[in-house]
Amino acid sequence: MAGHSQRKRMKKCIWIFGISICLLLFFFWQNNALVTSRYVFETDKIGEDLDGYRIVQISDLHNKRFGKNQKRLLEKIKVCNPDLIVVTGDLVDSNHTDMEKAMEFIRGAVLMAPVYYVTGNHEKWLGEDTEAALLELLEQEGVNCLNNGKEEIRVKQDSFFLFGLDDSNLVDNTLQQLISDDRKDLSAEEKFTVLLAHEPQNLLSYSNAKMDLVLAGHAHGGQVRLPWIGGIVAPDQGFFPEYTEGLYEANDTSMIVSRGLGNSIIPVRIFNRPEIVCVELGKK
Fold first, then answer.
1. Are 156 and 47 in contact (CB under 8 A)?
2. How far is CA 65 from CA 3, 98, 140, in A?
């Protein structure tokens, strides 16, 4: 009887060990297997010169590394053949900030396309001096820091307006002030507008400013995603958040929310692989 009991315990231990290894491998895959989500955004506000223009969005890297010198991440981006790369906040993580890891990605990205960046909440949590040091490093590497700024992106005879909000100014009148001068100009209402804003829960505010397309992150895809339910929890939205990944619309504004790449407080993603977003503009 003693031998039979020992064999049962041994089998149980083997099963537990096997299941544990499978779970660890699954969690590792979920946290490290990059996926590219592609969108085609058609609008009658662009001409032929912008037809097929590609914007790659990177969000919430949180100092995570995908291969040596971010090789896997950069190779995935290169496949998208981007005309523009935008970083929508939380490039670093305030809990374990590593500037060099952030610059590994940036140095590779700027070789592919112009890079534009806005802050996320983790950059704000760094404190003024550290945030300023990060912004200086980014600018030295050739990144356009578009915190509370705007730029006209021109391709031959066509162009669109790119706006960017600092994470501290997502819901005040900063965006309205940024667009006020343009909206007085001849073509402002007819020009295609893209907004970079880290947090998605302010969609109605972005819509009130009449942005055409918003690129956001912050929600980490809801961290854990369940079939027919979606994301379970997201910062600033709590449990069962409304905006976690994919395309949302409010009035005439469309918003694409990236699931992001890294983790912060919660270290595991489930059914929520790290995501690169590729948006291709199409002439309607």
1. no
2. 49, 11, 21
The string of pLDDT tens digits covering residues 5-58 is 777 777 788 888 778 788 888 888 899 999 999 999 999 999 999 999 999 999
What value, to the nearest 5°, has the Cα angle with vertex 143 and ends 197 and 259? 40
Radius of gyration of the chain (CA): 21
Q: Crossing angle for the helix pair 71-79 and 99-109, nearest 10 degrees?
A: 30
162: tokens are 């790119």
Greatest alpha-carbon span in the chain: 91
Q: Residue 125 belongs to what H/E stretch?
A: helix 121-125
Using alpha carbons only, what angle is made at residue 242 by residues 66 and 222, rounded to the nearest 5 degrees? Answer: 30
pLDDT confidence bin for 186, thresholds 50/70/90: very low
Residue 252 banded pLDDT, cuts 50, 70, 90: very high
Environment class of 25 (CB within 10 Å of its CB; exposed 0-12, middle 13-18, buried 19+) = exposed
